[in-house]
Amino acid sequence: MDHDVVVVGAGSAGYAAARTLAGGGLRVAVVEGARDLGGLCILRGCMPTKALLHAAELRHAVEAARAWGVESGPVRVDMRALLARKDALIADFAGYRRSQLEDGRFRLLRGAARFEDPHTLHVEGHGPLKAGRFVLATGSVIAPPPLASLAGSGVMDSDVALGLETVPGSVVVLGGGPVALEFAQYLARMGSRVTVVQRGAHLLSAMDPDLGEELARALEREGIRVVTGTRLVGVEGEPGRLRVLFERAGAADGVEAEAVFNGLGRRPATSNLGLDRAGVRLRASGHVECDATQRTSASHIYAAGDCCGPLEVVHVAIQQAEVAARNILAHGGREEMDGRCRLVGVFTDPGVAVVGMGEREAQRVGRRVRVARYPFNDHGKSMILGCQDGFVKLVADAGTGEIVGGACVGPQACELIHEVVVAIAAGMTAAQLARVPHYHPTLSEIWTYPAEELA
């Protein structure tokens, strides 16, 4: 064998696997076929989108400051300066990751990869590479449009939207997931008239309905139109004057805009790897099939990150990669992913964050739970901040009182949720959380109210 382990993909999951494996003394190679090193999160995902959202939040805050008597002139955004700032940050992040990948701990090969047999990977420009074990960490790509008309001019995806120097006067955003909603609010706060068109009955359809419904009300108060329960028919017209056609409640409907944002999701990047030659099965969705140890149907091949799911978020990708690597180092170890702390965040304003088991899931699996909520419009610190949309929610086992889930729609939701993450990881009951001291006035003390109610 040329190497003990070959990691396919150099994003967050791939680097985490390679770092852990090399640290354990194995001979490791990392193969990356993309033009740029860094992975989705750094180059086109988490980091650039949050940079743009921060700029939009600053503009919104300046305009909202008038309520406090803080006056300013008309707020103008220099889009070129904004993009330059974003690009400089991304270049810094990517440069650091590139230095980590090239520091000599493992061999880095640039080129597209495809399995020739279970132990041989052909790397473009380098030839065959043999290894005893493999870790698949190829990530995801933007899903192809579900309708041919969505591939036309004037329809943009997240990659295009990250580089917009001119914000369209009006945009229809297709989709009601995190990416679609974050870009919807960014575009709206930069001056676009935005309409969100969602197939499901509520936004964020993977979460409890009350979360998406609360966010929809807040977005609509900000001027974003939200249309749910639709069946997309197509897009007609030309750039600058497009019409999105859909059906709603059995009737034909539509909305016009200068541009359309396709936020209908991503798909795993697994189609060109020759996985059938390696004995690796795929699910119907295209995701790599693997168990809780991250082992695939081929016992010597593991997977981590977006290519296998089920959550396409960076911290999960890193955890999966480290679990896979430790199992390889343990010669077939059986360490499993801890599913109790499944964590998802949406960086809108108000934000949305969930961890663990929701009400709908508890009902589906037949688990008896008790639920308590508390609104931000009755909470001192959020009232001072003028952030009164939303609520927090705790889900606890009806018998033991152990906290099994939590949710937040409100200010700094993606920060506040970590208090519940710690509680779930530690196996705390609602009564134990209620007894934890919280400083006043803070946003985080809001968790004590549902905890006290459950206790």
CATH superfamily of the largest domain: FAD/NAD(P)-binding domain
The major beta sheet can be summarized as:
7 strands, mixed
Number of DSSP strand runs: 22
Individual helix count: 14
CATH architecture descriptor of the largest domain: 3-Layer(bba) Sandwich
Average pLDDT, all residues: 96
Beta content comes to 25-35%
Compute the number of structural domains: 3
Q: Give the helix level as a range of percent.
A: 25-40%
In CATH's first tier, which class of the largest domain applies? Alpha Beta
- Looking at CATH, which topology of the largest domain would you report? FAD/NAD(P)-binding domain
In words, what does this structure look like?
This protein is α/β, with parallel strands linked by helices. The chain contains 14 helices and 22 strands. It has 3 domains: 211 residues, FAD/NAD(P)-binding domain, CATH 3.50.50.60; 117 residues, FAD/NAD(P)-binding domain (3-Layer(bba) Sandwich); 115 residues, FAD/NAD-linked reductase, C-terminal dimerisation domain (Enolase-like, domain 1, 2-Layer Sandwich). The strands form 5 sheets. Strands 1, 2, 3, 4, 5, 6 and 17 form a 7-stranded mixed β-sheet that branches. Helix 1 packs parallel to helix 9. It starts with a strand and ends with a helix.
